[in-house]
Amino acid sequence: MSTAILVEGLVKSYNRVPVLRGVSFSVRPGEVYGLLGPNGAGKTTTLKSLVGLVRPDDGRIELCGYNVATHRLQALSCTGYVPELTVGFDYLSVREFLEFVSSLRGLRWAEIEDYVERLVNLFELERYMDEFMGKLSRGTVQKALVISALMSRPKVLVMDEPTSGMDPESQRVFREEVSRLAREGAAVVLSSHLLYNVERLCTRVGILHKGVIITEGSIDEIRRKAATGENSTLEDVFLLLTRGEGY
Ligand SMILES: Nc1ncnc2c1ncn2[C@@H]1O[C@H](COP(=O)(O)OP(=O)(O)OP(=O)(O)O)[C@@H](O)[C@H]1O
Questions:
Q1: Which of 27, 30, 92, 155 fits as disulfide partner to 97, beta carbons 3.0 to 4.6 Å?
Q2: Cβ density class 121-156: b for 16+ within 10 Å, e for less
Q3: Where are the domains of the chain?
């Protein structure tokens, strides 16, 4: 399959205020696509549309070849998702939460146990396994959410600000594990304001601004397009393109 995530002409308004005005991008197996943009640019709305939590007014989304509007179950069964915020799991321990997600996904615990244990060790979550999710710090919750999305080794991974609150060591673990999954053939899309992480992890980025993707490509390509010079950072490019025009 040449495209695992296909987004075409996504349009969405809230209370007649347009938020997405024709967002299009695609992600191939093995790619990690970073969706960037100022606050309110529409990143969460786009990612929620991908997993069927927001119904777009127009446009087409396919995950693993399945149209999300008509074959949502099939599309989501090959997809891992890290939401921006979680609600409702406060009174589950981390262990119960992971077991709950695995059973929802129809995974057999015995088959994923070794992988989950490896991730739990890497993210240093062992001592929190029997703590309620509601008692944990933001970064610790994020680690549990990331593990819950990775544990099925999905073909498509959709992540909204996945590393917010994570310490630098865990962010490195995150980058390594997501890269590993991509090398195994997953297509990944993530939103982030942490441009340092994006620069190291993403093979391609798209900058969302005023409801459309204003530039897209590898970091080198968008640096050339923005003519910010070969020593410029992603932050330089981002600030140049979106300067003073927060949406
Ligand atoms: N349910 C909703 N009802 C009305 N407006 C909404 C709703 N959800 C989002 N919006 C508005 O849509 C716009 C885009 O929001 P969205 O959360 O998609 O942006 P974002 O790029 O993810 O922002 P951030 O970087 O701050 O997380 C914002 O102006 C927001 O206030």
A1: 92
A2: ebbebeebeeeebeebeeebbbbbbbbbbbbbebbb
A3: 5-90+155-242
Using a 6 Å CB cutoff, which residues line ligand 1? 14-15, 19, 37, 39-45
Task: Find all residues with CB under 8 Å of 245, minimum gap 6, and list them.
Answer: 38, 209, 210
In angstroms, rounded to a whole number, what is the distance separating the alpha carbons of residues 72 and 52?
A: 7
Point out the least confidently predicted range of 131-135, 156-160, 235-239: 235-239
Cα 39 to averaged position of ligand 1 atoms, centre (Å):
8
* Residue located via tokens 């693993």: 64
Order of strands across the sheet with 66-67? Answer: 17-27, 5-14, 58-63, 66-67
- Distance (Å, whole) CA 188 – CA 179: 9
Ligand 1 pocket: which of 19, 84, 238 to mutate (most atoms within 8 A of CB): 19
**Residue 37 Cα, ligand 1 centroid: separation in angstroms?**
12
Confidence at 246, pLDDT banded by 50, 70, 90: very low
Which tokens belong to 146?
């990331």
Inter-residue contact 95 to 103 (CB < 8 Å): no
Is the CATH number of domain 5-90+155-242 3.40.50.300? yes
Whether pLDDT at 181 is above 80: yes
